[in-house]
Amino acid sequence: RDAATETTSKFSLEKYLVDMKTKVDEALEKSIVSECPEDKRFVEAMRYSLLAGGKRVRPVMCIAACTMARKRSGKDTAPGFYPDEETLKIAMPTAIALEMVHTMSLIHDDLPALDNDPLRRGKPTCHVKFGEDCAILAGDALLSESFAQIANHTPQDKVPATRIVEVVRRLAECVGRLGLAAGEMMDLEYEDKEATLDELRWIHLKKTAALLQCAVCAGAVLGGADLETDVRKLEAYSTNIGLAFQVQDDILDITASSEELGKTAGKDLEQDKTTYPKLMGLDGAKQVDSRVCDLLAEMQWSGSGALAAHGGDGPAVAMQEPV
Ligand code: GRG
């Protein structure tokens, strides 16, 4: 524990996030390029949304989980929490795919038929800038491009094909009938009626937690983690991260300024879709958020025999049901 505590105390999460985001941004920049004059506007629309400055939370979580699994088995020998070059090569195609799926979901979420938002990250949304037809197709193309990224670029001499298929399976499941699309559909259905806490939790699980869970678990799968033990534990861990993430996002929608949010801020609780702040009030939502965060901290540092970045008694994940 002493060695692990010492390493973590020197570790700056803030710097790590910036460093990893930089790597992801570089890879995203190269991931989609125009191939002929005819596709120029279309590709521009995809690149506009993909490179518009998101936090890259999902790609970084994927890289971190892959790094953790590979360090545990001694395959990644870089010091501390940082990935070596081989880990980056293994995780990056999936990291990029995750950001493409996330971007697709934001483009479609902003459309007039759904949330009808004019601004995203402080800039005009894709349909405002390029037209609704182009935005719909740009989202569709990003979705299929994401699977092509994984299939074409994951190094097959380093990751068994069965594991690549497992990553594709997880991504496919978290987008469609059991994931993002289902969560968004249910979210829309509750625009005019109030959801119960259970229904709201279901919506959050599908529309937000599923992709975050996929990011962590896909990274671990690529890194060689045991599918029946470690990946199961990570499923519970990352689902809780996803739930806390959505509650925090809804709190920020009310408390942050327009400038901080890059979109219309100060949502009216009465007119908003059902959210934790709307159902439980702002303080109630903050309590839920901090309860999940406490649980995450407990899970992170508890128990042995779980995934540990440095072996021994380092950061670990204990089996726990999502809140
Ligand atoms: C078309 C198959 C298909 C699916 C799309 C529209 C849709 C279905 C889903 C929308 C889901 C959605 C917008 C969920 C919100 C998730 C969320 C908390 C987004 C904010 O994520 P951040 O904070 O954003 O990571 P940045 O801007 O940093 O990338």
Automatic annotation (TrEMBL):
Chain coiled-coil ranges: none
Domain of life: Eukaryota
Homology family: Belongs to the FPP/GGPP synthase family.
Protein known as: Tubulin--tyrosine ligase-like protein 9
Source organism per UniProt: Prorocentrum cordatum
Full protein: residues contained: 233 to 555 of 904
